[in-house]
């Protein structure tokens, strides 16, 4: 039989056990120290003040391929890892010297899924983290402009800035307003649209010799058409070299080369035949090849010619007009430079193999991409402004009328 004293002690013990259990449950619930936390007690957990922000939101599907990166405020980044999701391939990047940001080393790929995991610490050494899995804008939903001239190049005074976009542009104003072209010469530069996919820029007159031209491309995120956005953001600059303008006179079958206002040389040429005349007008050298194949079937002449090693060839139009060396010319009667015999190109005396001291080699060596070749007195029409880089054949008023800005 239990005595009253023993029963009382057991009851007290049971009550104490229940109280401990109750306290234990409360502590596991996380609220037991709420009062101390609110008062900043010495045992209170502290949250890092560092705030890590990844520009591409988790789950997004149209992230920028240029501007994606990581920023931190009230702290410094300690580690950032970016990978191609699924493959685990690491994307190289670097944390800034002050620890406030991270960015990839190179432009990201379009339509690719990536993952970023980033950590930072605040001034007290407490850690903060963020992560994001996202997909960059797809090729189908973006556009890119292929442009010329290249960054760092030196070009002739006739070289326009020319963009060819891989998608049709419907909001031309938005696109053009995010491309600026300026010259150290102070010349006004205006854009002109040829259709929906080509935009060229030029001043009213040829560029000033020795000037520096800078174009800023700020198309990243710019809507060019419904659901289609730009992905380019860069600055490109090029130098305008000496002024060289060469004039071909079909009447006399000669070309006069003028550099910086002084005649360098007058040389014999062979322009187009009576059946295949050469365009008139101002044409700009857009490509140079020491040797190239010319096949008549590619420009509408069927099998009339196919020459695998045309020497010292320089393109004047996209439709196939070149100024080039000619080694197959019949040097009998009449001599070279007396009669037009080509299919519309301008021929210069040369030898097979692009070797030797020839007129064609001299002109090739003394020409830059962007130099101007003017053809006059041909029975043909004037070359179309969009046939090659030949916008100089358009009056300034018409040129500016084609601007969307």
What's the gist of this structure?
The model is unreliable at 1-41 (pLDDT under 50).
Structural account:
This protein is mainly beta. The chain folds into three domains: 51-135, Immunoglobulin-like (Sandwich), CATH 2.60.40; 142-241, Immunoglobulin-like, CATH 2.60.40.3710; 244-390, L,D-transpeptidase catalytic domain-like, CATH 2.40.440.10. It is 12% helix and 37% strand. The protein contains five helices and 27 strands. It has helices at 4-28, 34-38, 172-177, 359-365, 396-401; strands at 51-54, 70-73, 76-84, 93-95, 101-104, 113-121, 127-135, 142-143, 145-148, 154-155, 161-165, 179-183, 189-194, 198-203, 212-218, 223-225, 228-230, 233-240, 244-249, 254-259, 262-268, 281-284, 287-295, 306-315, 322-326, 346-349, 372-376. It has a five-stranded mixed β-sheet with strand order 21-20-19-27-22, with no helix packed on it. A hairpin with a 4-residue loop joins strand 19 and strand 20. The longest helix has 25 residues, at 4-28. Residues 1-41 have low confidence and may be disordered.
CATH class of the largest domain: Mainly Beta
| Name given to the CATH architecture of the largest domain | Beta Barrel
Kindly report how far apart the N and C termini lie: 105 Å
- Molecular shape: elongated
The CATH topology of the largest domain is what? Answer: L,D-transpeptidase catalytic domain-like
Low-confidence stretches: 1-41
User: What is the CA-based Rg, rounded?
Assistant: 36 Å
| Helix-strand category | mainly beta
DSSP helix count?
A: 5
How is the quaternary structure best described? single chain
What do we call the CATH homologous superfamily of the largest domain?
L,D-transpeptidase catalytic domain-like
β-strand number: 27
Count the domains.
Answer: 3
Fraction of residues in H or I helices: 10-25%
Largest sheet: 5 strands, mixed
Estimate the mean pLDDT confidence. 89
Strands side by side in the biggest sheet: 21-20-19-27-22
What proportion of the residues form beta strands (DSSP E)?
Answer: 35-45%
């Amino acid at each position: 039989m239990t005595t009253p004293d023993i029963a009382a002690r057991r009851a007290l013990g049971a009550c104490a056990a229940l109280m401990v259990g109750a306290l234990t449950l409360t502590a596991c619930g996380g609220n037991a120290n709420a009062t101390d936390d609110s008062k900043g007690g010495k045992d209170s957990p502290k949250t890092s003040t560092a705030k890590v922000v990844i520009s591409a939101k988790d789950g997004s599907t149209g992230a920028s391929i240029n501007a994606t990166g990581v920023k931190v405020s009230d702290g410094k980044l300690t580690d950032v890892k970016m990978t191609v999701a699924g493959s685990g391939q690491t994307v190289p990047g670097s944390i800034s010297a002050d620890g406030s940001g991270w960015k990839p080393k190179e432009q990201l790929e379009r339509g690719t899924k990536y993952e970023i995991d980033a950590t930072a610490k605040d001034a007290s050494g407490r850690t903060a983290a963020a992560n994001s899995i996202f997909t960059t804008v797809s090729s189908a939903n973006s556009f890119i402009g292929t442009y010329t001239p290249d960054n760092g190049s030196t070009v002739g005074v006739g070289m326009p800035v020319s963009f060819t976009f891989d998608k049709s542009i419907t909001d031309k104003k938005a696109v053009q307003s995010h491309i600026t072209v300026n010259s150290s010469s102070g010349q006004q530069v205006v854009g002109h649209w040829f259709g929906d996919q080509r935009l060229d820029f030029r001043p009213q007159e040829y560029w000033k010799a020795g000037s520096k031209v800078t174009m800023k491309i700020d198309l990243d995120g710019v809507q060019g058409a419904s659901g289609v956005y730009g992905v380019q953001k860069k600055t490109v600059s090029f130098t305008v070299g000496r002024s060289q303008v060469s004039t071909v006179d079909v009447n006399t079958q000669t070309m006069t080369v003028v550099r910086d206002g002084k005649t360098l040389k007058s040389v014999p040429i062979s322009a187009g035949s009576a059946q295949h005349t050469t365009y008139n007008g101002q044409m700009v050298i857009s490509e140079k090849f020491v040797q190239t194949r010319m096949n008549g079937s590619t420009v509408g002449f069927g099998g009339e010619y196919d020459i695998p090693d045309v020497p010292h060839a320089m393109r004047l139009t996209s439709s196939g007009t070149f100024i080039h060396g000619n080694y197959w010319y019949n040097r009998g009667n009449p001599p070279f430079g007396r009669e037009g015999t080509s299919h519309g190109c301008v021929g210069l005396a040369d030898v097979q193999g692009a070797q030797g001291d020839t007129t064609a080699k001299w002109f090739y060596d003394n020409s830059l991409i962007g130099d101007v070749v003017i053809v006059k007195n041909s029975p043909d029409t004037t070359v179309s402004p969009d046939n090659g880089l030949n916008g100089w054949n358009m009056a300034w008023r018409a040129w500016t009328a084609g601007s969307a800005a």
